[in-house]
Every structure is written in C-alpha cells, then in structure tokens.
Amino acid sequence: IMGVDTTGRSLHRRGYRVYEHPAALKPTIASAMLLLSGWRPGETLIDPMCGGATIPIEAAMMAWNRAVNRDRRDFNLLRLRLFDADALEEERERLRIAEGGDPHPIYGLEKYPRHLEGGRRNAERAGVLETVNLRLGDATDPAFYPEDVSHIVVNPPYGVRMVPRERVRRLYPMFLRALKEAAGGATLTVITAAYRRFREAAEDVGVEIISSRRVLHGDLQTMIYLCQV
C-alpha cells in the first residue's frame, strides 16, 4: 500500500491566526462544535469566552458559505505532475461565486482586553470583522449577553494552562447560572478537559447534558457536551 500526502501543512492551520491565544482551540474542532450544536446562520450565536475568536470566525465563514483554505497556495498536490492547475483555479472561482449571505451578528465576549484585540485582528485577517461582534465582557454576568441567544458555543478554561483548578471549580457554576438567567432554553455546546467539574456544575445548576463526545485536543483528553440550558 502506498500513500501520497496531498495536503502538507495541517488543515487546521487556517491562515487567519495572526494572534495566538495561549489556550487556543483548533479551528477544526471549533468548526465541528458548531456543526454539533445545530446552529444555523440567522440564529443568535455567542461565544462568551472567545479568546482569539476562533469560534466566532469559524461561524462567520460558515454563515458566508466561505470555503476554508480556499486560496491556500502550499498544498503538496500542487507539485504533483498529474495536477491540473487550471481545474483548481476554476474550482476556486466557483467557490468565490458561491459565497454570500446576510448573516445575523455572531457575538463573542472576552474578559481581557489583550485577547479581545487579538481576536479582532484574527477576524480582520479572516475577512469577517464586520460579521462578528466582539465585546469586552464577563461570561459570568448576564448583563453582557445579547437578547434572543439561541446557541452558546464555548471553550472555557480547563484549569490546565492558564487558570488554576480551584478557580475553574468556582467558574463553571457561575457561568452556567449566568446562562440560565440570560439565555434560558438555549443550546450550549462546550468543550472541556475538566469534565467532572463541568458535570457537577451542570447537575447543581440544572443544565441538562443531552450528549457527550470524547475528543483529543492536542495532548489533552477533552469532552464535548451538548446541553439544554
């Protein structure tokens, strides 16, 4: 059996990340979470701990029907003798023509100004800055949430890289209580390596876990939970 690597650099490297958040989520996982969430363009989506804005950016590209890596120029297949460069350019043009939409604003909250500014830079590089509404705000305060939120997709701290575990133990219940007040009835999709802490908090606050999936995020064993707030 012989295999040919036609890709080269990993597909999760989208090219828009000019600011690297210290606990960034892989764009491929962010995209998968959006699909699992059931969110559709036109519904109100928020990432209340958006960091470098990976989730809002991936959502905005979905809303615009924009193919990721469409203009990438370093695929290994470009060096194959059998490769048809004209066919690729025709496909790229077809994808450009297919882009479009009038997406509802996609929201992101971030507590720290440095990360918020970095997220805006990433959104600008991705060409979706006018579609994503990134704000300074605290995910544990219901006052920062927009009205009519139908979907929350979030990558909160795990208590591994940036935030102490004890703080995560307090953060998860506070966050879920804020969601109950600001977006009761909405769908929550969350990824975490502190899955026992999250399950305990969900049970205490009354957030129903509908399904779960185990995902390897880098070297971390994580769970993606789909919940009803």
- Our Rg estimate from Cα atoms comes to 19 Å
Largest β-sheet summary:
7 strands, mixed
Predict the CATH topology. Answer: Rossmann fold
Beta-strand content: 15-25%
Return the CATH architecture. Answer: 3-Layer(aba) Sandwich
The SSE order reads HEHHEHEEHEHEE
Query: Strand order across the biggest sheet?
Result: 3-2-1-4-5-7-6
Mean pLDDT: 89
Tell me the number of structural domains. 1
Topology:
Blueprint: H1 27-37, E1 45-47, H2 54-63, H3 85-98, E2 106-110, H4 113-126, E3 132-136, E4 151-154, H5 165-182, E5 187-192, H6 195-205, E6 208-217, E7 220-228
Parallel strand pairs: 1-2, 1-4, 2-3, 4-5
Antiparallel strand pairs: 5-7, 6-7
Helix pairs in contact: 1-2, 2-4, 5-6
Structure notes:
This protein is α/β, with parallel strands linked by helices and 229 residues long. The protein has a single domain (27-65, 104-228), classed as Vaccinia Virus protein VP39 (Rossmann fold, 3-Layer(aba) Sandwich), CATH 3.40.50. The protein is built from 6 helices and 7 strands. Strands 3-2-1-4-5-7-6 form a 7-stranded mixed beta sheet, with helices on both faces. A hairpin with a 2-residue loop joins strand 6 (208-217) and strand 7. Helix 5 runs parallel beside helix 6. The longest helix is centred in the last third of the chain and has 18 residues, at 165-182. It is globular. The model has no long low-confidence stretch (mean pLDDT 89).
